[in-house]
Amino acid sequence: MVTVGSYCEANSSISQTWVDEGISPCFYFTLIPSILTTVAFFLGTIHCLFYQKYGTTMEPKFIPRSRLYGLQQALSAFLLIQFVGGMVWRSTSKGELPGYVLLYGCFSVLGWAWAIALLRVERRRALVMDRTRGHSAALLLFWAIAFSAENLAFISWYSPHWWWGLHNSQQQVQFALWLMRYVSTGLLFFVGLKAPGLPRKPYMQLINEDERDVENSRQVSLLGGTEENQSTWQGFTKKVKLLIPYMWPQGNIFLQLLVLFCLGLLGIERVINVFVPIYYKNIVNELTDGSSWQTLSATVCVYVLLKFMQGGGAGASGFVSNLRSFLWIRVQQYTNRVVQVRLFSHLHSLSLRWHLGRKTGDVLRSIDRGTSSINSLLSYIVFSIFPTIADIVISIIYFITYFNAWFGLIVFVCMSLYLTLTIIITEWRTKYRRDMNLQDNNAKSKAVDSLLNFETVKYYNAENYEVSRFEDAILKYQVSEWKTQASLAFLNQTQNLIIGSGLLAGSLLCAYFVTEGKFQVGDFVLFGTYIIQLYTPLNWFGTYYRMIQNSFIDMESMFKLFEEEEEVKDAVNAGNLLYKLGTVEFKNVYFSYTDGSEILKDVSFNVFPGQTVALVGPSGSGKSTIIRLIFRFYDVHGGCICIDGQDISKVNQTSLRAHIGVVPQDTVLFNDTIQNNIRYGRITASDQEVEEAAIAADIHDKILTFPDGYGTQVGERGLKLSGGEKQRVAIARTILKAPQIILLDEATSALDTQTERNIQASLAKVCANHTTIVVAHRLSTIIGADQILVISEGRIAERGTHDELLVKGGLYADMWMQQQQAQDSDSSSESESKDRKSEKLKPPSTSSGRHSSND
Prior knowledge:
Elements: E1 3-4, H1 25-54, E2 55-57, H2 67-94, E3 96-97, H3 99-124, E4 125-127, H4 137-152, H5 169-194, H6 203-215, H7 219-226, H8 236-247, H9 253-289, H10 293-310, H11 319-349, H12 352-357, H13 360-402, H14 405-452, H15 454-459, H16 463-515, H17 521-538, H18 541-563, E5 584-594, E6 597-607, E7 612-616, H19 623-630, E8 638-643, E9 646-647, H20 653-658, E10 660-663, H21 674-679, H22 687-696, H23 700-704, H24 723-737, E11 741-745, H25 753-767, E12 771-775, E13 787-792, E14 795-800, H26 802-808, H27 811-841, H28 845-854
Parallel strand pairs: 1-3, 7-12, 7-13, 10-11, 11-12
Antiparallel strand pairs: 2-4, 5-6, 5-8, 8-9, 13-14
Helix pairs in contact: 1-3, 1-4, 2-3, 2-5, 4-5, 9-10, 9-11, 9-13, 9-17, 11-13, 13-14, 13-17, 13-18, 14-16, 14-18, 16-17, 22-24, 24-25, 26-27
């Protein structure tokens, strides 16, 4: 028969907190379930009311399937059953059930039953305006308290009233029950941080994305639009793995030893941080104990040496830290070099399609920010975050070992609260920071736009309107700025409150033990010094956390560039192009830049060695696309392109392009000298060869008229030169390359007639006895071509020589007639204009006659 005895066991009372070097079981098992049940029912009820009033039932397709969620439910149910089983076992084994055991079991069952209900509510309903991800604060707090309560049992390690001794079967069963609770509550808490059973995004965002997916399947834009709302800590392990290759210098033993030495210095810093407060304590004790001057001076010298090694104060680096920073410079430089070189090489390997769509400013900023972010991440994580966490763990172990478990508990609770609240508040205030940046950009853009359109503002007397718009933008920015600064102040005050509370609790306890004679005065000094020393880096933890967030964001944009795939790749074991005669052959080629819009449709033609083939046709017909396909900027979607019988998609790109020279329509030069721009055709060419190429391109004499000759700087994109001069530099560059196949893409379309004639003469010299393909806009420039292909709507509409096509009277003949009429019209307009000018210059003859008769 089971009877309920007194509330506490014999020889104990609920008013007794500390009994035989441990917490009283009666007090402990009364306090813990009371707190848990209060949290579960009070916060849980509010939570359920909010979900009932402001929530909505989630559609099943938005609820993720997760085995971890099943584990959460199973663990919660297991704990509930375990508490019932514990009461049954206690009653059957002793026959008498103390009141506190009954209260502990019943309250725990109620608390965990309510927690299971909350877990199911969150699984099925969602707050419409919720902007957060993860479990509610009520559930996380409940699991955190439950796990902390099981950790609190360690304080009673030496108490005979607890189960740690395992002296009999009852203690062994109690220990087994505690071990199951410890593992289960710990798993629930840490799995709960991931929230596996809940959507990774706010519910309304999922609905909006789903609707946009139905309307238009633009998956890429949707993903790009939601990344800002994702946590920067998602995929942390993957991001760290990306960092490791840049931290560990492969193939460089010296730098590898340097990394190991820096990590060793980091360990030495942790040891120094422990001994500085200890020697400070020894100085105080020796001063109060009346130790000899020799002993005291030796202790002081060691203490000062340790402080020299550690650093003077908050933010002041010591000898070890400065030495580590100095040595780490070489590793940082290695990281910078490797990242930038790899990314630069990768960008050059990307396709023309990607480069045509890129934003150069964004790419350069991504490279700069990404490189610096990797260094920042390595510095913050390796030399700030990990050492801070290591110092906390060391301090907890030290206080438990040399003081007692209460001090370790105080440090553990304070540090846990400090780190947890810092992370939560920092994540919460991130939205204010983003909004402030948005408003700041908005204000600056309005100011710049208004100033750039200064004349328009004056034309319409809109000065007051512009000033008003700018003021409104500033006011919006200041509202966001106030929220950002207020949230920062709230974070700082929260941190100060936790630090002050922990320091107060520890100092009072330490002072109490000093008055009881259990501690010395130096121990009180040691505690205060150690805690303050520990809090100093923690004050920067929020800053480090925020900087790591920003670094992750910057790093992500850079690694996205690394993830861009090459569109045109060499085939596996692709060989070099074996050039023989230079025959170019198109066989039923199909190509499109985007799906559903074909640019080339079943194009077939041959260019035999030494021939010149011209491509003509209206804009957008596919002429320039043919040139790009031969150079293999893109791969064809159907058919093949062969040179001397070899499919160019099966040969190495480098060897293919080595035999092809291109003179583009829009020549872009490097911001360098004329000599270096010509030499770019063959980097190893001598100065004499450069001049010979310039002579062949008919630009040598012009270069000599410049003050600096071949050393003349051409400016950004060659803008200091005229169009004709740039074209001749491009021709000279191609001549220096000495290619066997020449591609001319409307090389003279934007030039005046005389310059065009000069360049045509230069091109004739270059193309002599070479396989040449010309894209022409002015038909007069390709009259002598061996074959002319008329491209219309992606197909070859006509082919033949100039005379043959004129006889046909088709598209080419129409184009020729239109250009001839345009030229005749221009010529007549020019002659009429000259006649008018000459008439104005002639003196009126009639007036002269009248004057003479009057005379």
